[in-house]
Amino acid sequence: MAVGSGVSVGSEVGKYNGQITPFVVLSCMVAATGGIIFGYDIGISGGVTSMEPFLKKFFRKVYTKMEEDTKISNYCKFDSQLLTSFTSSLYVAGLIATFFASPITRAFGRKPSILIGGVAFLAGAAFGGAAYNIYMLIIGRVLLGVGVGFANQSVPLYLSEMAPSRYRGAFNMGFQFCVGIGVLAANLLNYGIQKIEGGWGWRISLAMAAVPASILTIGALFLPETPNSLIQHNRDDPDKAKKMLQKVRGTDDVKAEFDDLVTANEISKTIKHPFKNILRQKYRPQLVMAIAIPFFQQVTGINVISFYAPILFRTIGFGESASLMSAVVTGLVGLSMTFLSLLIVDRVGRRTIFTIGGVQMFVSQMLVGAIMAAKLGDHGGLSKGYGFSVLILICTYVAGFGLSWGPLGWLIPSEIFPLEIRSAGQSITVAVGFLFTFIVAQTFLTMLCHLKSGTFFFFGGWVAVMTVFVYFFLPETKNVPIEKMDRIWKKHWFWKKYVGKEDDTNYDPVTTEIKTDI
């Protein structure tokens, strides 16, 4: 039995012609800016909630508790449901929005959903920058959530469908790379504006979200639709999809890939209710992954590190300026490792990267928890040496996430669904991600207050679980054509009982390499 093995798809990739063209690179670069708006918001949220003028204006009780209550535990200074509601309200809106995005993406294409996402995020940036009370602030967050919901549902699909099969991992990881750019840009901006006299620097941080949103909105107007989407929406005129495929691949000889698209589309025509259809047994592996992957991605604990990194560093004794700079450092580390992952994912494979990143994250979280348990009490701070040790370990943890669960958490779901349930599957993935992002964000500060250093052991335990899950249950998807992805489940030791056996004699369940004719 080949436990958790990768699966070979015979010579399918060898039949696909084409190359990386400037047209597809430019299109994917524009679409991937949808990741910048998501990352920017993650970085900005944590920064502004650690700024004293922002807390004074909207969360005075938190500010008073932080500055004046000398008896309160280090772990409980920022424990406020209203403060966490500011952060997490975006994800409730995003969760709801993604289910509206799914029928739009399926009926009208990926491009309209990307455009709607950009416009909604623009409106949210305007409300946030101009906010004069908590209600206006929350309305802005909700609009940002709608924008992120539409963008996160459509952009990963767009990238996976436009990319050549051999390089799909690298192209799709452009989304997570842009998330990293957004986080880093937000952290740098937070650090730069924190000392603006008059205490209104937070307005710049919130309003500047309009910059990446404008790039995405304007760029979306000129984006081409994917060949996969065109063939769905121009069923009486398949030549339009074929011409786009030829343009994307940079060659007229696209018969093999186009035939696979036509076949996938014929199957898609028979599906009238994709959300109902995805519950069928034949789609059980995809449904499990659509739920498990985003769930695991959130219980790595990464978003609480991203949301609350400045708060976390203040908890262990760093000042406001040092806390914001520490967040910049962790953002830079995460971005660098995502770029490394982008370079190696289509050579090394998904499963290997998951394993390396999982081990790295687990060890660093256990050590952070141990240091905080031993050295950080309810009062005072860590010594300078231990404080920087925690910073280094958190950077190690972020590096592991940036290498593995960050980019792969978006890549795997976007490439495993057959065309007939692809939009619905991606919506479930995004919705589950938003749901658990909301839950984790809403509970983290309370968890930190009550579990204290045990919070890191909690997330570290989940990292161990997810690493084992990937080893046993996720087959390798490296280089597998997106419209042939159903085959990887048919030779998997566990999933074959749900989807049936594959009769392709070129199918090898042991190797993780793709056999090609070239």
TrEMBL record:
Residues of the Major facilitator superfamily (MFS) profile domain: 27-478
GO molecular-function term, one example from the UniProt record: symporter activity
Topology with respect to the bilayer: Multi-pass membrane protein
Transmembrane residue ranges: 20-40, 82-101, 113-132, 171-194, 200-223, 287-311, 323-345, 352-374, 386-412, 424-444, 456-474
Keyword Transport annotated: yes
Compartment annotation: Membrane
InterPro entries: MFS_dom, MFS_STP/MST-like_plant, MFS_sugar_transport-like, MFS_trans_sf, STP/PLT_plant, Sugar/inositol_transpt, Sugar_transporter_CS
Keywords assigned by UniProt, alphabetized: Membrane, Sugar transport, Symport, Transmembrane, Transmembrane helix, Transport
SUPFAM superfamilies cross-referenced by the UniProt entry: MFS general substrate transporter
GO cellular component term of the entry, any: membrane
NCBIfam families, sorted: SP
Family designation: Belongs to the major facilitator superfamily. Phosphate:H(+) symporter (TC 2.A.1.9) family.
Protein name in the entry: Major facilitator superfamily (MFS) profile domain-containing protein
Species of the source: Lactuca saligna (Willowleaf lettuce)
